[in-house]
Write a structure and sequence with these properties.
Length: 336
Amino acid sequence: MRHSRRYALTGLGSLACATALIGSAPSAKAAEIVVAEPVHGFSFSPVYVAMRKGYFKDEGIDVKLIRMAGGAFVTAVLSGDAFAYLGSVDHNAFAVANGGTLKAVSALVAHANIYLVARKDLLPVTVPLPEFLKGKRIAVPAFGNTPNNMLRYLLAKWHLQPGKDVTLLEVDSHAILPAVASRQADVGVSDEPFISMGVKQGVWGQPIYDAATGLGPYPDTAVSVSGASITNQPKLVKSLVKAVVRGLVYVNTHRDELVDIAASEFPTASKDDLRAMANRAFADDIFSHDGYIPPEAWTTGEAVVREPGILKKPVGYDEVIDMTFVKEVHKELGIQ
């Protein structure tokens, strides 16, 4: 099977997909499951779409999304208080390193949704990026968050040492724009809508580094479940995956609708902010097209937390990712 992150419908597969997208008959009693999310974020849009379009109900599932901050979403899945969580695959590796078993069963975001932006008065960058960054103060989300892990990985690649060559200002993600605007920081690690907000306010320019294109495939965000659920409830896991994959297909084939759908999920966000998030997501091919996580994505994902010393021992692809259900769903939906 070819997993090019695109999909095609052929022969009987077209009929299977058409039938599936119309919706299968829900079971008499839906299985109630809790899906934990660290934040209510735009990156999780395929799941929100699957909920609004009734894809989970089609598969006999009643999903309850619960926000759990910190590491609570990981603990909840390991303990059985939640069935799945939405987040980066490196959390699975940390669980494995501590004796647990968590596996990503479907991708959501297939490229790193992480960008470096520089204060406008420091632009344009006319020297190699590592040279430009040396001596700079960089505002970044707190230690343990994926953007922080990514920055430390990039700095190690560029032979820049935090605390020596650069200064890290570790703050809440919402505080990065104010930190750069007030000149407490020279560079920020951010994403949309903050990038567009900073450009409009004249705080910074367009990104000076784009991890989405710079790193290639990367398991930025996925749906993960416990190893016990894969062993003991495979049908439920497959149903979850099928609904999510249908959500991914819909997002990528109905791009113009995403802003309106997102507006329902984020009622306090402006249409301009939502449009900025959608435009950059599609421009940088952020969303997975089919839920499949290729091995090379985890090669990079593992390196991001191994090389800076955040993950202390190697963890293999099969220890943190299980694409069995995605492959089965592809056959049923006619995805190649």
